[in-house]
Automatic annotation (TrEMBL):
Domain FAD-binding: 6-346
Cofactor: FAD
Organism per entry: Acinetobacter boissieri
Lineage: Bacteria, Pseudomonadati, Pseudomonadota, Gammaproteobacteria, Moraxellales
Protein name, entry field: 6-hydroxynicotinate 3-monooxygenase
Database matches in SUPFAM superfamilies: FAD-linked reductases, C-terminal domain, FAD/NAD(P)-binding domain
Protein keywords: FAD, Flavoprotein, Monooxygenase, Oxidoreductase
Keyword Cell inner membrane: no
GO molecular function, one term: monooxygenase activity
Pfam families given in the database record: FAD_binding_3
Amino acid sequence: MKKAKKIAVIGAGLGGAAVARLLQRSGFDVDVYEQASTFSRIGAGIHVGPNIMKIFREMGLEKELTELGAEPDQWISRHGQTADVLADANLQNYGATYITVHRGDMHALQIESLDQQKLHYGKRLEKVEQNSNDVTLTFIDGTAVTVDLVIGADGINSKIREILLGEEAPTYSGWVAHRALIKGEKLKKLEAEHQLDDCVKWWYQDRHMMAYYTTKEKDEYYYVTGVPHPPLDTQGRSFLPSNHQEMLTAFEGAHPRIQAMIEASEDITIWPLNSRNPLPIWSTGRLVIIGDACHPMKPHMAQGAGMAIEDGAMLTRCLLKTGLDDYETAFKLYEHHRKARATRVQTVSNANTFLKQPENPAWVYGYDIYAEEIQSLQDIRNS
Ligand SMILES: Cc1cc2nc3c(=O)[nH]c(=O)nc-3n(C[C@H](O)[C@H](O)[C@H](O)COP(=O)(O)OP(=O)(O)OC[C@H]3O[C@@H](n4cnc5c(N)ncnc54)[C@H](O)[C@@H]3O)c2cc1C
Protein backbone atom coordinates (compact mmCIF):
# COMPACT_ATOMS: atom_id res chain seq x y z
CA MET A 1 0.00 0.00 0.00
CA LYS A 2 1.24 3.50 -0.84
CA LYS A 3 2.33 5.49 2.24
CA ALA A 4 0.31 8.67 2.92
CA LYS A 5 2.38 11.78 2.29
CA LYS A 6 3.35 13.82 5.33
CA ILE A 7 3.28 17.59 5.65
CA ALA A 8 5.13 19.48 8.41
CA VAL A 9 4.08 23.01 9.35
CA ILE A 10 6.82 24.93 11.17
CA GLY A 11 5.32 27.44 13.60
CA ALA A 12 1.90 27.40 15.24
CA GLY A 13 1.31 31.18 15.09
CA LEU A 14 -1.78 32.69 13.50
CA GLY A 15 -0.75 31.61 9.99
CA GLY A 16 0.61 28.16 10.87
CA ALA A 17 -2.42 27.24 12.96
CA ALA A 18 -4.70 28.36 10.11
CA VAL A 19 -3.00 26.40 7.35
CA ALA A 20 -2.73 23.31 9.58
CA ARG A 21 -6.46 23.45 10.39
CA LEU A 22 -7.43 23.86 6.72
CA LEU A 23 -5.15 21.04 5.57
CA GLN A 24 -6.20 18.68 8.36
CA ARG A 25 -9.87 19.33 7.54
CA SER A 26 -9.11 18.54 3.92
CA GLY A 27 -7.78 15.11 4.95
CA PHE A 28 -4.02 15.73 4.69
CA ASP A 29 -1.60 14.21 7.19
CA VAL A 30 -0.21 17.32 8.90
CA ASP A 31 2.04 17.73 11.95
CA VAL A 32 2.79 21.14 13.46
CA TYR A 33 6.14 21.92 15.13
CA GLU A 34 6.27 24.96 17.41
CA GLN A 35 9.35 26.25 19.26
CA ALA A 36 7.38 27.66 22.22
CA SER A 37 6.61 25.33 25.11
CA THR A 38 3.13 26.85 25.41
CA PHE A 39 1.20 30.00 24.44
CA SER A 40 -0.02 32.70 26.83
CA ARG A 41 -2.61 35.50 26.49
CA ILE A 42 -0.24 38.45 25.84
CA GLY A 43 -2.06 41.81 25.99
CA ALA A 44 -2.82 42.50 22.36
CA GLY A 45 -5.80 42.87 20.07
CA ILE A 46 -6.32 42.03 16.44
CA HIS A 47 -8.73 42.93 13.65
CA VAL A 48 -10.39 40.11 11.73
CA GLY A 49 -11.72 41.55 8.51
CA PRO A 50 -14.48 39.86 6.46
CA ASN A 51 -11.80 38.59 4.05
CA ILE A 52 -10.41 36.55 6.96
CA MET A 53 -13.73 35.65 8.53
CA LYS A 54 -14.64 33.88 5.26
CA ILE A 55 -11.64 31.61 5.87
CA PHE A 56 -12.71 30.95 9.47
CA ARG A 57 -16.05 29.91 7.93
CA GLU A 58 -14.18 27.34 5.86
CA MET A 59 -12.30 26.22 9.00
CA GLY A 60 -15.67 25.63 10.72
CA LEU A 61 -14.81 28.26 13.35
CA GLU A 62 -16.76 31.34 12.21
CA LYS A 63 -19.46 31.14 14.88
CA GLU A 64 -17.04 30.56 17.75
CA LEU A 65 -14.72 33.34 16.63
CA THR A 66 -17.56 35.84 16.16
CA GLU A 67 -18.71 35.06 19.72
CA LEU A 68 -15.31 36.15 21.04
CA GLY A 69 -15.06 39.62 19.55
CA ALA A 70 -16.66 43.06 19.28
CA GLU A 71 -18.35 44.02 16.00
CA PRO A 72 -17.51 47.61 15.09
CA ASP A 73 -19.62 49.15 12.32
CA GLN A 74 -17.00 51.63 11.26
CA TRP A 75 -13.29 52.31 11.24
CA ILE A 76 -13.09 55.98 12.19
CA SER A 77 -9.98 58.04 11.55
CA ARG A 78 -9.67 61.11 13.80
CA HIS A 79 -7.37 64.10 13.91
CA GLY A 80 -5.08 63.56 16.89
CA GLN A 81 -5.54 67.05 18.31
CA THR A 82 -9.04 68.16 17.38
CA ALA A 83 -10.77 64.73 17.18
CA ASP A 84 -12.30 65.79 13.86
CA VAL A 85 -13.34 62.80 11.74
CA LEU A 86 -10.97 62.45 8.77
CA ALA A 87 -12.60 59.28 7.38
CA ASP A 88 -15.22 56.75 8.45
CA ALA A 89 -15.19 53.49 6.57
CA ASN A 90 -18.02 50.99 6.80
CA LEU A 91 -16.76 47.59 8.01
CA GLN A 92 -19.77 45.35 7.90
CA ASN A 93 -21.19 44.71 4.43
CA TYR A 94 -18.59 42.50 2.80
CA GLY A 95 -20.07 39.00 3.05
CA ALA A 96 -18.89 38.19 6.59
CA THR A 97 -18.62 39.91 9.97
CA TYR A 98 -15.75 42.26 10.89
CA ILE A 99 -14.61 41.75 14.45
CA THR A 100 -11.94 43.09 16.76
CA VAL A 101 -10.79 40.53 19.31
CA HIS A 102 -8.09 39.63 21.80
CA ARG A 103 -5.32 38.01 19.80
CA GLY A 104 -4.76 35.34 22.48
CA ASP A 105 -8.44 34.33 22.44
CA MET A 106 -8.44 33.97 18.66
CA HIS A 107 -5.19 32.03 18.69
CA ALA A 108 -6.40 29.70 21.46
CA LEU A 109 -9.48 28.87 19.36
CA GLN A 110 -7.25 28.08 16.39
CA ILE A 111 -4.88 25.92 18.47
CA GLU A 112 -7.74 23.96 20.07
CA SER A 113 -9.14 23.22 16.62
CA LEU A 114 -6.01 21.27 15.62
CA ASP A 115 -5.48 17.55 16.02
CA GLN A 116 -3.74 17.70 19.43
CA GLN A 117 -1.80 14.47 18.74
CA LYS A 118 -0.14 16.27 15.85
CA LEU A 119 0.78 19.50 17.60
CA HIS A 120 4.31 19.40 18.97
CA TYR A 121 5.56 22.09 21.35
CA GLY A 122 9.17 22.77 22.30
CA LYS A 123 10.33 21.92 18.76
CA ARG A 124 12.66 24.66 17.57
CA LEU A 125 13.74 23.84 14.04
CA GLU A 126 17.54 23.87 13.66
CA LYS A 127 18.43 22.01 10.48
CA VAL A 128 16.74 21.16 7.20
CA GLU A 129 18.07 18.53 4.78
CA GLN A 130 16.18 18.19 1.55
CA ASN A 131 16.67 15.64 -1.24
CA SER A 132 14.58 14.57 -4.23
CA ASN A 133 12.53 12.12 -2.12
CA ASP A 134 11.90 13.86 1.19
CA VAL A 135 12.98 16.42 3.80
CA THR A 136 14.53 15.72 7.20
CA LEU A 137 13.94 18.29 9.93
CA THR A 138 16.13 18.35 13.03
CA PHE A 139 15.04 20.20 16.14
CA ILE A 140 17.07 21.79 18.90
CA ASP A 141 16.11 18.97 21.30
CA GLY A 142 17.98 16.55 19.03
CA THR A 143 14.90 14.84 17.59
CA ALA A 144 14.32 14.58 13.84
CA VAL A 145 11.43 13.79 11.49
CA THR A 146 11.30 13.00 7.80
CA VAL A 147 8.40 14.39 5.79
CA ASP A 148 7.36 14.98 2.19
CA LEU A 149 6.57 18.71 2.29
CA VAL A 150 7.39 21.58 4.67
CA ILE A 151 5.39 24.77 5.15
CA GLY A 152 7.41 27.50 6.84
CA ALA A 153 4.99 29.53 8.96
CA ASP A 154 7.79 30.46 11.31
CA GLY A 155 7.46 34.23 11.28
CA ILE A 156 9.76 37.11 10.44
CA ASN A 157 12.97 35.28 11.47
CA SER A 158 11.98 32.17 9.53
CA LYS A 159 14.47 29.33 9.32
CA ILE A 160 12.78 28.12 6.14
CA ARG A 161 13.13 31.57 4.52
CA GLU A 162 16.82 31.43 5.44
CA ILE A 163 17.20 28.18 3.48
CA LEU A 164 15.42 29.71 0.48
CA LEU A 165 17.33 32.96 0.42
CA GLY A 166 20.24 32.86 2.87
CA GLU A 167 20.75 34.41 6.28
CA GLU A 168 19.63 38.04 6.44
CA ALA A 169 18.23 39.89 9.42
CA PRO A 170 14.98 41.81 8.83
CA THR A 171 15.24 45.59 8.58
CA TYR A 172 14.18 47.80 11.47
CA SER A 173 11.48 50.08 10.07
CA GLY A 174 12.37 53.02 12.33
CA TRP A 175 9.02 52.58 14.10
CA VAL A 176 7.77 50.97 17.29
CA ALA A 177 4.31 49.97 18.45
CA HIS A 178 3.13 50.39 22.04
CA ARG A 179 0.40 47.98 23.08
CA ALA A 180 -1.80 48.03 26.19
CA LEU A 181 -5.21 46.97 27.50
CA ILE A 182 -7.72 48.96 29.58
CA LYS A 183 -10.06 46.95 31.81
CA GLY A 184 -12.27 46.90 34.89
CA GLU A 185 -12.89 50.08 36.90
CA LYS A 186 -10.39 52.04 34.82
CA LEU A 187 -12.34 51.29 31.65
CA LYS A 188 -15.65 52.18 33.33
CA LYS A 189 -14.23 55.51 34.47
CA LEU A 190 -12.77 56.21 31.03
CA GLU A 191 -16.12 55.44 29.38
CA ALA A 192 -17.93 57.66 31.89
CA GLU A 193 -15.68 60.60 31.11
CA HIS A 194 -15.06 60.11 27.38
CA GLN A 195 -16.96 58.95 24.34
CA LEU A 196 -14.97 55.89 23.19
CA ASP A 197 -15.23 54.81 19.55
CA ASP A 198 -15.67 51.10 18.84
CA CYS A 199 -12.77 51.20 16.39
CA VAL A 200 -10.70 54.33 15.85
CA LYS A 201 -7.34 55.41 14.52
CA TRP A 202 -6.03 58.70 15.89
CA TRP A 203 -3.56 60.43 13.58
CA TYR A 204 -1.31 62.71 15.59
CA GLN A 205 1.56 64.53 13.85
CA ASP A 206 3.87 61.80 12.44
CA ARG A 207 2.40 59.04 14.66
CA HIS A 208 -0.87 57.31 15.44
CA MET A 209 -2.85 55.32 17.98
CA MET A 210 -5.41 52.67 17.00
CA ALA A 211 -7.98 51.72 19.66
CA TYR A 212 -10.84 49.20 19.85
CA TYR A 213 -12.71 46.71 22.04
CA THR A 214 -11.40 43.14 22.17
CA THR A 215 -14.39 41.26 23.60
CA LYS A 216 -18.06 40.83 22.71
CA GLU A 217 -19.01 42.19 26.15
CA LYS A 218 -16.88 45.28 25.47
CA ASP A 219 -15.20 44.92 28.85
CA GLU A 220 -11.68 45.26 27.45
CA TYR A 221 -10.36 48.16 25.35
CA TYR A 222 -7.00 48.05 23.58
CA TYR A 223 -4.65 50.46 21.89
CA VAL A 224 -1.69 49.98 19.62
CA THR A 225 0.48 52.82 18.41
CA GLY A 226 2.87 53.54 15.57
CA VAL A 227 5.65 55.89 16.71
CA PRO A 228 8.99 56.76 15.04
CA HIS A 229 11.80 55.64 17.36
CA PRO A 230 15.57 55.02 17.32
CA PRO A 231 16.54 51.30 17.22
CA LEU A 232 15.84 49.36 20.43
CA ASP A 233 18.06 46.62 21.82
CA THR A 234 15.53 43.95 22.77
CA GLN A 235 18.19 41.21 23.13
CA GLY A 236 16.28 38.85 20.92
CA ARG A 237 12.87 39.45 22.48
CA SER A 238 9.88 40.65 20.46
CA PHE A 239 9.04 43.40 22.94
CA LEU A 240 10.10 45.26 26.09
CA PRO A 241 8.13 46.82 28.92
CA SER A 242 7.16 50.47 28.42
CA ASN A 243 5.46 52.90 30.81
CA HIS A 244 2.96 55.76 31.11
CA GLN A 245 5.61 58.47 31.09
CA GLU A 246 7.16 57.26 27.85
CA MET A 247 3.71 57.13 26.25
CA LEU A 248 2.64 60.54 27.56
CA THR A 249 5.84 62.02 26.18
CA ALA A 250 5.27 60.36 22.79
CA PHE A 251 1.73 61.83 22.66
CA GLU A 252 2.39 65.16 24.38
CA GLY A 253 -0.10 67.75 23.13
CA ALA A 254 -2.45 65.10 21.70
CA HIS A 255 -6.24 65.13 22.29
CA PRO A 256 -7.34 64.62 25.94
CA ARG A 257 -9.00 61.30 25.00
CA ILE A 258 -5.61 59.93 23.93
CA GLN A 259 -4.04 61.15 27.18
CA ALA A 260 -6.87 59.58 29.16
CA MET A 261 -6.47 56.23 27.40
CA ILE A 262 -2.77 56.24 28.25
CA GLU A 263 -3.48 57.07 31.90
CA ALA A 264 -6.03 54.23 32.14
CA SER A 265 -3.91 51.55 30.48
CA GLU A 266 -2.01 48.72 32.15
CA ASP A 267 1.13 46.75 31.34
CA ILE A 268 2.27 48.84 28.39
CA THR A 269 4.71 47.08 26.08
CA ILE A 270 6.88 48.42 23.23
CA TRP A 271 7.49 46.41 20.03
CA PRO A 272 10.09 47.31 17.39
CA LEU A 273 8.50 46.95 13.95
CA ASN A 274 10.63 45.07 11.44
CA SER A 275 10.10 44.47 7.77
CA ARG A 276 11.57 42.90 4.62
CA ASN A 277 11.43 43.74 0.96
CA PRO A 278 9.18 41.46 -1.13
CA LEU A 279 10.98 38.12 -1.64
CA PRO A 280 11.99 36.94 -5.12
CA ILE A 281 10.95 33.31 -4.43
CA TRP A 282 8.43 31.73 -2.09
CA SER A 283 9.43 28.08 -2.39
CA THR A 284 12.29 25.79 -3.24
CA GLY A 285 11.90 22.08 -3.84
CA ARG A 286 9.70 20.70 -1.08
CA LEU A 287 9.79 23.86 1.07
CA VAL A 288 7.30 26.73 0.88
CA ILE A 289 6.71 29.77 3.12
CA ILE A 290 3.63 31.73 4.22
CA GLY A 291 2.82 34.80 6.31
CA ASP A 292 5.48 36.87 8.03
CA ALA A 293 8.13 34.40 6.88
CA CYS A 294 7.30 35.57 3.39
CA HIS A 295 5.98 39.16 3.54
CA PRO A 296 6.31 40.80 6.98
CA MET A 297 4.90 44.31 7.17
CA LYS A 298 4.32 47.16 9.56
CA PRO A 299 0.98 46.42 11.21
CA HIS A 300 -0.65 49.76 10.32
CA MET A 301 -3.40 48.28 8.15
CA ALA A 302 -4.18 45.46 10.61
CA GLN A 303 -3.83 42.85 7.86
CA GLY A 304 -0.50 41.08 8.59
CA ALA A 305 -2.09 38.02 10.14
CA GLY A 306 -4.84 38.32 7.57
CA MET A 307 -2.33 37.85 4.78
CA ALA A 308 -0.78 34.84 6.58
CA ILE A 309 -4.23 33.24 6.85
CA GLU A 310 -5.11 34.04 3.24
CA ASP A 311 -1.80 32.43 2.21
CA GLY A 312 -2.75 29.29 4.13
CA ALA A 313 -6.16 29.16 2.48
CA MET A 314 -4.76 29.56 -1.03
CA LEU A 315 -1.96 27.05 -0.45
CA THR A 316 -4.54 24.50 0.73
CA ARG A 317 -6.67 25.13 -2.37
CA CYS A 318 -3.63 24.69 -4.63
CA LEU A 319 -2.54 21.43 -2.96
CA LEU A 320 -6.09 20.10 -3.23
CA LYS A 321 -6.13 20.98 -6.91
CA THR A 322 -2.78 19.38 -7.84
CA GLY A 323 -2.48 16.62 -5.24
CA LEU A 324 0.68 16.27 -3.14
CA ASP A 325 2.73 14.47 -5.80
CA ASP A 326 2.65 17.58 -7.96
CA TYR A 327 3.66 19.94 -5.16
CA GLU A 328 5.90 21.92 -7.51
CA THR A 329 2.90 23.05 -9.55
CA ALA A 330 0.94 23.70 -6.34
CA PHE A 331 3.69 25.99 -5.02
CA LYS A 332 3.91 27.90 -8.31
CA LEU A 333 0.14 28.25 -8.38
CA TYR A 334 0.10 29.47 -4.77
CA GLU A 335 2.70 32.14 -5.43
CA HIS A 336 0.94 33.16 -8.64
CA HIS A 337 -2.34 33.76 -6.78
CA ARG A 338 -0.87 35.40 -3.69
CA LYS A 339 2.05 37.57 -4.66
CA ALA A 340 0.29 40.62 -6.10
CA ARG A 341 -2.25 40.94 -3.29
CA ALA A 342 0.19 40.29 -0.43
CA THR A 343 2.69 42.75 -1.94
CA ARG A 344 0.01 45.42 -2.36
CA VAL A 345 -1.12 45.06 1.27
CA GLN A 346 2.51 45.05 2.42
CA THR A 347 3.21 48.28 0.47
CA VAL A 348 0.10 50.13 1.68
CA SER A 349 0.62 48.93 5.25
CA ASN A 350 4.25 50.06 5.30
CA ALA A 351 3.28 53.46 3.83
CA ASN A 352 0.66 53.84 6.59
CA THR A 353 -1.90 55.58 4.38
CA PHE A 354 -4.85 53.17 4.68
CA LEU A 355 -8.09 54.97 5.65
CA LYS A 356 -6.30 58.15 6.63
CA GLN A 357 -8.61 59.82 4.15
CA PRO A 358 -11.96 58.64 2.80
CA GLU A 359 -11.43 55.63 0.53
CA ASN A 360 -13.28 52.46 -0.35
CA PRO A 361 -11.71 49.49 1.51
CA ALA A 362 -13.67 46.89 -0.50
CA TRP A 363 -10.48 45.67 -2.23
CA VAL A 364 -9.30 44.41 1.17
CA TYR A 365 -12.48 43.36 2.95
CA GLY A 366 -14.65 42.33 0.00
CA TYR A 367 -12.08 39.80 -1.20
CA ASP A 368 -13.19 36.15 -1.02
CA ILE A 369 -10.32 33.74 -1.54
CA TYR A 370 -12.76 30.93 -2.31
CA ALA A 371 -14.32 32.93 -5.15
CA GLU A 372 -10.99 33.37 -6.92
CA GLU A 373 -10.78 31.21 -10.02
CA ILE A 374 -7.64 29.06 -9.94
CA GLN A 375 -5.37 29.32 -12.97
CA SER A 376 -5.22 26.31 -15.30
CA LEU A 377 -2.51 23.84 -14.28
CA GLN A 378 -1.22 23.60 -17.82
CA ASP A 379 -0.66 27.36 -18.00
CA ILE A 380 1.16 27.35 -14.68
CA ARG A 381 3.34 24.37 -15.60
CA ASN A 382 4.33 26.12 -18.81
CA SER A 383 5.01 29.48 -17.16
C1 LIG B 1 2.13 45.56 17.19
C2 LIG B 1 1.52 44.64 16.17
C3 LIG B 1 0.13 44.71 15.91
C4 LIG B 1 -0.45 43.87 14.93
N1 LIG B 1 -1.80 43.96 14.69
C5 LIG B 1 -2.35 43.19 13.71
C6 LIG B 1 -3.77 43.23 13.41
O1 LIG B 1 -4.55 43.96 14.04
N2 LIG B 1 -4.25 42.44 12.41
C7 LIG B 1 -3.44 41.60 11.70
O2 LIG B 1 -3.93 40.87 10.79
N3 LIG B 1 -2.11 41.52 11.96
C8 LIG B 1 -1.55 42.28 12.94
N4 LIG B 1 -0.22 42.20 13.21
C9 LIG B 1 0.63 41.33 12.37
C10 LIG B 1 0.54 39.90 12.78
O3 LIG B 1 0.82 39.76 14.15
C11 LIG B 1 1.52 39.05 11.98
O4 LIG B 1 1.48 39.40 10.63
C12 LIG B 1 1.15 37.58 12.14
O5 LIG B 1 1.32 37.18 13.48
C13 LIG B 1 1.97 36.68 11.21
O6 LIG B 1 1.60 35.34 11.43
P1 LIG B 1 2.63 34.17 11.14
O7 LIG B 1 1.93 32.92 11.50
O8 LIG B 1 3.19 34.33 9.77
O9 LIG B 1 3.86 34.44 12.12
P2 LIG B 1 3.87 34.46 13.72
O10 LIG B 1 2.55 34.81 14.27
O11 LIG B 1 5.05 35.29 14.09
O12 LIG B 1 4.14 32.95 14.13
C14 LIG B 1 5.36 32.32 13.89
C15 LIG B 1 5.45 31.11 14.83
O13 LIG B 1 6.59 30.32 14.47
C16 LIG B 1 7.29 29.94 15.63
N5 LIG B 1 8.68 29.73 15.23
C17 LIG B 1 9.58 30.66 14.83
N6 LIG B 1 10.76 30.08 14.53
C18 LIG B 1 10.61 28.75 14.75
C19 LIG B 1 11.49 27.64 14.63
N7 LIG B 1 12.77 27.76 14.22
N8 LIG B 1 11.01 26.39 14.93
C20 LIG B 1 9.71 26.22 15.35
N9 LIG B 1 8.84 27.27 15.50
C21 LIG B 1 9.29 28.52 15.19
C22 LIG B 1 7.07 31.11 16.59
O14 LIG B 1 7.26 30.74 17.94
C23 LIG B 1 5.63 31.50 16.29
O15 LIG B 1 4.70 30.79 17.08
C24 LIG B 1 0.37 42.97 14.21
C25 LIG B 1 1.75 42.88 14.50
C26 LIG B 1 2.32 43.69 15.48
C27 LIG B 1 3.81 43.58 15.78
